[in-house]
Amino acid sequence: MISLQKWFRIQAPAALCGAGIAALLALQVFWLHQSYRLTRQQFMADIAVAFEQACQKEQTYRIPVNSIVPPGNLTIESCGKEEIRIIRHCPDPDTVIYDNVSGQSMETVLNQAFRELRESLVPLNLYCLADLFAGELFARDMAISFVIERYHRATGAVLESSEMPGAAHPVTAVTDTLTVPLSEAESLRANLQFSPTSVLHRMRTGVLISSVLLVLTGACAGLSMHAVGRRARSEKAVLSAAAEPSAAFPLGHFIFDYTKNELQGFGQTVTLARKENALLYELCANAGNVVGRDLLLEKYWEGTGFVYSRSLDTYIGRLRKLLSDDPSVQIITIKGVGYKLAVPTP
Fold first, then answer.
1. Distance CA 221, CA 25 (A)
2. How many domains does the chain have?
3. Strand order in the sheet with 268-271
C-alpha cells in the first residue's frame, strides 16, 4: 500500500508528463509528414503545368503546316455530320489518311493529324523545349534538374535527348517523371530530379512554426522532467529514513525514534516534520562526526543556493530548540564545513 501511494505521488506525474510530451511530438511529426506530402503533390502539379506550357510554346516556334504543305497536297473531306477524312497527297505509298471511322471525335482527329504532320515535316526541337521548360521553372522559383527524352513507347528506347553530348549528367537519380504522348509509337518524357529541400522551401513558414513549437515543447519537457525528477528525488530522500529497520537513538534524556518521526523526552512526545526527522537521523547516524552542509543540501534540497542554505539553517535551529531541554545534547556548527552532533557517552 505504501509503495502504491508512493508511485502515484512520485512516478505518476512523471509518467503523465512524458506521455503528454510524446503525444505532442507525435502530432507534430504527423502534421509535418502530411504537410510535406500535400506540398509535394502541389509541387508536382505546378511542374506538370510548366512542362505543358513549355510544350505549347515550342509548337508555336515551328512553321505552320499550311506554310510547308503545297496547296492541293492536303484535302479535308466531310463524310457526314460527325465524319471527317484528312488526306495528305504524296507519291504512293506515302499518302497518309486520317479519319474518325473508329469513333474518335472530329477534334481528336484534327489534333492528331496536324500534330503528326507538324512532327513529320518540322521535327520537335528538344533543345528549344528544354530552354522553354527551364524558363517556366525559373519563373515559378523551382530549382530542379531535368532531362527531356523522346522515346519509343513499345521498347522504351531513347530516340533523342535534350542532354548535350559530352556534357555532365544533370540528372543522376530520377525523382519523378512527366510523360506526354506524341504518337502511337513515340512519347515525350521529362526525367526530374529535386531534393526534399525544394519542397520544404515551399512550406518554410510551416517548418518555421513547427521548429519553434518543437523548441518550446523541448524546453517545457526539460523543465517539467527536471521538476518531477527533483520532487521524486526529494521524496525518496525524505522517506528513506522511514524505510530503515525499526531502531531508536538515545540522545541524553531523549529517545529519537526515526521510524515513527518522534522525539521522546521529559514526559513529552514530539512528532517531527519529515525534513526534521531526516536531518536528525543523519546527525545521529554520524554522531561525533561532521556532516557536511553541501551533503545535506544536495540530498534533501537538491541544490546549494542561498535560499536552500537558509532553509537548512532554519531546520537546524528548530532541532536545537527541540533538544534545548538537555544541555548535554548539542548540534555544533563547524564553520564552513557542516554540523556535528555531540551526545553524552553512555
1. 11
2. 1
3. 249-251, 254-257, 262-265, 268-271
φ and ψ of 259, to 5 deg: -75, -20
Domain that holds residue 257: 249-342
Cβ–Cβ < 8 Å for 203, 224: no
307 is a domain residue: yes
What confidence tens digit (pLDDT) does each residue in 92-137 have? 666 766 676 666 776 777 677 766 666 666 677 888 888 889 999 9
The reported pTM is 0.45
Question: What's the maximum distance between 2 C-alpha atoms anywhere in the chain?
Answer: 135
Q: Are 296 and 282 in contact (CB under 8 A)?
A: yes
Rounded CA-CA distance 249/253 in Å is: 11
Angle formed at CA 168 by CA 167 and CA 173, multiple of 5 degrees: 130
Domain of 269, CATH number, reads: 1.10.10.10
Q: Write the pLDDT tens digit of every residue in 36-66.
A: 888 888 989 999 999 998 888 887 766 555 5
Computed from CA positions of residues 167, 173, 179, 183, in that sequence, does the dihedral angle turn out positive or negative? Answer: positive
Is 199 within 8 Å of 40 (Cβ atoms)? yes
Name the helix (H) or strand (E) containing 319.
helix 306-322
Q: How many CA atoms lie within 13 A of 19 on its CB side?
A: 6
The answer to whether residue 133 sits within a structural domain is: no
Local structure of 99: helix, strand or coil: strand
Q: Are 213 and 27 in contact (CB under 8 A)?
A: no
CA 258 to chain centre: 51
Within a domain: residue 319? Answer: yes
The answer to whether residue 78 is domain-embedded is no
